Amino acid sequence: MELKEIIRRKIISEETKSNIAELYGTKEVTSKRALADMFKMTKKRVCEILVEKGIGTINAWDRTKVIAVIDGNKYIPTDEYTFIAKHKGTGREITDFNNTSGKLTTYLKELNPDIKIDTLALRVAYFKKTGNYWYEDFYDIIKKPIINTVKKMKGELYPNEIDEIIRLYSSGEVTTIATLGNMFRVGNKKISTLLKDNGVVVKSKGGQFKEVKTKRVTPSKPQEKYENHDDIIYKAVCKKTGLEFDDFLNSSGTLTRHITEQYPDLKIESSKVNIRKYTLTGNYWYEDYFEILPYNKVPMRKCDYCDWEMPIDVSARQYKMHLTMQHGITIKEHLELYPRDNDLFIDNFNKIEEEKVDDNWVVCAICDKRMKAVNTIHLRSHGMTAMQYRRIHGNNISKTSHDLLSAATIAMNMSGVAKVKESKAELDIKNYIKSFGFDTRSNRFILDGKEIDILIEEKKLGIEFNGCKWHTEWFGGRGMNFHLNKTLLANKKGYSLIHIFEDEWFHKEEIVRNKIKHLLGVSEDKPRIAGRKTVIKKVGKGLASDFLNKFHIQGDDKHTTALGAFYGDILIGVMTFKVLAKGGLDYDLTRFATDYNYICQGIGSKLLSHFIREYKPTSIISFADRRWTLDKDNNLYTKLGFELVSESRPDYRYYNTNVDRYIRFHKFGFRKQILSKKYNLPMEMTETDMVKQLGYDKIWDCGLLKYRLDVK
Length: 712
Hints:
Blueprint: H1 3-10, H2 14-25, H3 32-38, H4 43-52, H5 68-71, E1 81-87, E2 93-94, H6 103-111, H7 120-130, E3 139-145, H8 159-171, H9 177-184, H10 188-197, E4 232-238, E5 244-245, H11 254-262, H12 271-281, E6 290-296, E7 300-302, E8 309-311, H13 316-327, H14 331-337, H15 346-355, E9 362-363, E10 370-371, H16 376-380, H17 386-393, H18 399-415, H19 424-434, E11 441-447, E12 450-456, E13 461-466, H20 482-492, E14 496-501, H21 502-507, H22 509-520, E15 528-530, E16 535-538, H23 541-551, E17 561-567, E18 570-579, E19 586-594, E20 599-601, H24 603-615, E21 619-625, H25 636-639, E22 643-647, E23 652-655, H26 672-679, H27 687-693, E24 697-700, E25 704-710
Parallel strand pairs: 13-14, 15-20, 19-21
Antiparallel strand pairs: 1-2, 1-3, 4-5, 4-6, 7-8, 9-10, 11-12, 12-13, 16-17, 17-18, 18-19, 21-25, 22-25, 23-24
Helix pairs in contact: 3-4, 9-10
């Protein structure tokens, strides 16, 4: 009951109550509303007074709160304590101890639907006679301290809390100090001190039997058996698949997950069983499935300015990023202090050397910027073309560049070779092809002046190495059909042309090398495995994902079914499928890859035949990347019985060299709604305007070839 209500009732004197009862009893005033207006109170209060005086009945609308009339006489809560009703049978506690809301009555009817509750008049008469409420036959009304919820300092206790702590411990309701500490959110020591200061005997510890716990050897953390050293590290190698895992301690559970995927029916024993096995055999449980092998640790070197360590063969890009971000040092400043790194930063070193030659530079006549050539891209900022610049200001390239270009032009006209300077990656690809005995050169004759980066005339094969930055649409000038038109023109001239993007070589170099080797028809001394010697099984998503990320240039995919070709216990091929419509029988063949460490023959045909036999599809479609397809009418798809049904136009991805030089971002993450929400851009802007403002550019591919197989 609120304090205001208590005060309001106290100021109504007994004389006033008697006057109200007399006026209503003698029928001088017959309206309760009139009495309420006369004595300046509510009609509800008049009804309560009349019932208290035993005159009249209370209206039905206030029947549930009639007990409030007599409530104040027996149980009045204060700021320090309140009351609760506790059922004598079930022990359930209800805060509405005065039955104002009727909860006590409702609970009794829930327990016994046939219970009969006396009338209001009888209940009031019962209270006047016995001094107890009618529901006290079923409930105990218990006094309960109010825990102050006002924010207090850590460890502080209010007086009522101190009294409650002493009462609970002395009475034995709470037997441990730790429980009291948790209840009142203070330390155990403070509770113990408080009890002792108030003369309460605190039970001392002791007398209980304590189990002596031995040091537990956890099989998932075998640091006692295998420890990395300065020159040695360990890896876990799967005996079945040959996959390597750095987490040889199984700290993250990676080994357990891999075992579960490889052996779906295997039951992993409990920790106790595994510990017992380790104690008896000296081996960890997962050593039945993995070999823990030592590897030589990659030599490390320290940064010249801090204690940061990096592999001795760290790429220039990684070290440059560290120097710039952590120390604010340019490569030029670094090489002046530490010339030994000239070979590591060879491009920067050559540029510095070139800057020392005055003939190798020209100054823009408009903005006084020093550069090798006042090129078209720079002149865009001045709103003019190179031809307009030359007419007004004369030569726009340095003397050295002019001499080099003149010599290159003569060489190109004589031999068709176009390259003056090659990137390191392009040079690596050329050297790789030459290692198999093929002659390579760049060429401008075949494509009517358009350059082929690497031409293998013997195979009628051209390879384009596309640096991401220079093959963008807006910065590099490579529009939607640039790469496709170049491919079509090469095909028209009797040559095949493939395109390798810079990020593919950076992230998937080994896969690209093996694809080139396959296109060249190079046969190496590798184990040869025929499809008839393999067993086809359904594989889990984790195993399929690991395999595709290792052996497919596009990596993992979203599939519904994955089949694996096993040679003994070795997985050598994976083919994945995705159902096109839920409950349908039309599928998309999304990925096919084989282990390039083996020469696999007939694996694709066997995997596809198994899928058709087990899943009975009505049709299967698949898409081939035109950049990597030499002949659209004679390839793996056509040999498997697929037919070419359509050719899609080129598609694009987004690129920002300032975000990551070696990533082409899928356009799905650059939809207009996403960009607007993420970067607070107005929806009135187009997607193109948004990405341009964020510094992104487009890179176009050559489109896809769609193949279809109708299963009869």
